[in-house]
Amino acid sequence: MVLKNVTSESPSDVPSIINPINECKSEESFIPPAPVDNSRLNDDIKIEDNKILFDMKQINTHVNDIFSSSTSSLGNLGGYTTCLQRIIIGVKNLFNNMNYNHPDNVILTKQSDIRRFVKAWQRFIKYSPTLLMSLEEFVNFSLKDKWTIFRSFWRDAYTLISSVYLSKVKSPYNGALLLCDETYVIKLDDGEITDPNLDDKNSKEILNLMRPTLNLVHRYIHKPMKDDNYDEIEIAYIIVQMMFDRLTLDETSMECQKVGNEIIKLVNDELHNYYIYNKKMHNYAHRITEMTKLLSMVREYSTRHREIALISKWMDIIDMSLLDSI
């Protein structure tokens, strides 16, 4: 199935998606229902004086409760599982919680409310800790070490996971797309980000400020993700590299550093065995190089995103600094 253009998100603009036998579905018939949020957290978003506001303290408490558990989020799987196997299962659970299971239902629209982006970030911050807790080794870390890793991890992981989802979206448009949430994407070249509490000038400036960096994301993250068609185990490998980044580990306890380095060695061996015995691929150096480049660009984007957020706040366009209070 492919996307069809929509000029807005209003109920009166009913898009259709063309399936292989050229039948069309109305918007009401194929948009999945909102995911069930068992965490019962208040995700109300306000924008006042160009500042995004929501209950970050409540989300932090929720994350802290997850990290305070002494058991893996996967429980007992009934047999031995490797590090990458557990991460693969954790990613699938995260996709379910993010409602990232219906890429064929995604709609290309002209405009998107900025709150869609913020709600997607909220959901990821709430549910990605369970991905980390899928590793039994992570469960045994101190609460302080868990938070240190998570604060460094979540932005990079969101970029990667959302890129995996976007790579599955089939669109007749070959240019850069920006994922708003699980349901909507906009074109980067002429899309619009709106909100009733933002004036037209600031609404336009948000995307104008982000566009050069988002074009970088399209060229060096989204496009390679689609072209290289990474396997689940390769995505899991990249996630583990994010978790146990060298600079992040240096801020953790000696025990955490030791375990993290051991896990990196284990997943390297596991991926090697996967290529040799499962894929019958003996010359996989290029594949590893491309994954390393992808990870490097994800980190570069996170750095630029923080810089843009500071500029945006300073220019009084939009203040997203609440996300830094994790």
Automatic annotation (TrEMBL):
UniProt domain NR LBD: residue ranges: 55-326
Short name of any one Pfam family annotated for the protein: Hormone_recep
Keywords from the named record: Receptor, Transcription, Transcription regulation
PROSITE patterns: NR_LBD (PS51843)
Name the record gives this protein: NR LBD domain-containing protein
InterPro entries linked: C.elegans_Orphan_NR, NHR-like_dom_sf, Nucl_hrmn_rcpt_lig-bd
Gene3D superfamilies in the record: Retinoid X Receptor (1.10.565.10)
